[in-house]
Amino acid sequence: MDTRGVSSVIGFILLVGMVSVVTLSILYIGGVQLDTVAHHAEQEQVEHSFIEVRHQIESVSNTSGTTRTATLEVGEQGAVAYDDAATYEIWTEKYDGSNRTDVANGTIGTIEYESPDGTTVAYEGSGVFRKTSDQVHLLSAPSVTYNQDSVTLNFFVPQLTENKALRAGDLAIEQRNSTSKGLNYIEDDHVFVAIESNYCDGWEEYFETQAGDTTVQEDCYGGENADGEVEVKLGYEDVNDAFESGLSVPNPETNYEEPKGNNGEIELDDGEFPPLNSVIDSLGADLADAPELRSSEPNPAGNYSVETMNDAYTFNLSEGDALVYVNGSVSPDEIEIENCDETPHSLTIYAQGDFDLRTDIGDSCSKDAIETIQFYGTNTSAVSFQDSSSEFRGLLYVAGENEDFDVDAGGDHQVQVDGAGEFDMAGAIIAQSVAFGSAANDVDLKGAEAVDADVIPDGHEPAPQILYLNVLEKRIEIENQ
User: Is residue 322 over pLDDT 60?
Assistant: First the structure.
């Protein structure tokens, strides 16, 4: 039997089948890609319309008695307006947590759209957010503004008149009433804001971006607060009077071990001060091109930047102050100040790493000046004094919040003093924990109200100073035309 004809037919059928499969695959993949492109286009259209709604709500909030319109692109799904889906609370406190004053609390208006794939887009508190299954993105920032000229923080809180469904199309937006919580004078206070929301992560991202990571006191999830609630602290500490006490640590009963056999006097204060992490980061960026220190000859007044300080250094301060940024640790063999009795200038050292101060540190010209040499570290900087018969006279600031320290001296306190004894110290220390693990001959930490120490250099403040707080609630009515 001749099978050549049959083989040709089978081959032709297989070829047609393969072409069909490939064609169907191409059509399927192309269809999926088209659907994906169409979905992204629809999503962008929704997001843009929500941002436009935000602009119109803000516009009508500034001019009462007017009506604005905006087109809501939400397809057949529609959107829902809520007058109580999110809440806020604002209060002020002193830097040490005392003197709490409640300023305002209430609901925050929310308009929410959910796409078929579960992604939601929401207007809330004058911000616009996108929420997927695992994260929240901030699309447009809330209207929390700072006026530098008036040193005022303005907090705009849009509220909605009622819960209602909204369909796609034109919206009429009108301000119904406005409530001002007053212009509160809050000098020397911090402003605390707590927001509970389904878009909490987006609010947290906003505050971190605007004011830094240390602004957040309680994260949205995993903290002591309720899930979905973020708590932030705004305004920086006025820390230039921080050295009024000789030794300041939070909860001294657990964070302080006093020296044995001390002949000096220690003025102990239960105080909490902010970390200088962002200040030191800012200095590092600003001084990236600053000259390096010289160990072979005196360094005149000016700004310097080095990786580490692990040599002997001399500074001549007759013409002004010297400031050193250290990207790593500080463990000098010697620090000597020349001509320090001619003018009241100072040496300030800001470091990202640890301090290992095994040698004599101080101003050899005047036994009364405790601010000539100043050391500033981050909240993770560990400090060790180890050598016997050594002396430290100066200021040390390593405040913040961090409980995990592994100091070279072998302790678990942030500042650790160990050795055979006869350790002399004068000046002031601000830290998270301090332990004198050995006998001390003369530790005299009394601070001084007249200490001339600019803890935060000009231009490197971690956040705006706030003197006034203005909270405005605007009740907005939104309806389909």
Answer: yes
Domain of residue 333, residue span: 239-445
Token pair for 357: 């101060």
Nearest CA-CA partner of 354 in 394, 399, 312, 384: 384
Q: 428, 461, 426, 460: which is closest to 444 by C-alpha?
A: 426
- Output the pLDDT for position 220: 92
Whether 256 and 150 map to the same domain: the answer is no
Nearest to 433 by CA among 280, 258, 281, 239: 258
Residue with tokens 């018969």: 389
359: closest CA among 339, 327, 325, 336? 336
> In the predicted model, what is the mean pLDDT of the chain?
83
Extract the tokens encoding 100: 């709490």
**pLDDT higher at 174 or 418:** 174
**Is residue 38 one of the residues assigned to a domain?**
no
Specify the number of domains making up the chain. 2
Q: Taking the complete model, does pTM exceed 0.70, yes or no?
A: no
Residues 177 and 66 in one domain: yes
The residue type of 405 is: F
Give the HSE-up count for residue 471: Cα atoms under 13 Å, Cβ half-sphere. 21
Question: What length is written for the chain?
Answer: 481
Q: Is residue 124 part of a domain?
A: yes
How many angstroms separate the CA atoms of 81 and 105, rounded?
20
Lowest average pLDDT, out of 30-34, 199-203, 354-358, goes to 30-34
Q: Is residue 16 part of a domain?
A: no
Q: 28-32, 186-190, 364-368, 390-394 — which one is most confidently predicted on average?
A: 390-394
- Give the pLDDT band (50/70/90) at residue 215: confident
Is 362 inside any structural domain? yes
Same domain, yes or no: 179 and 278: no
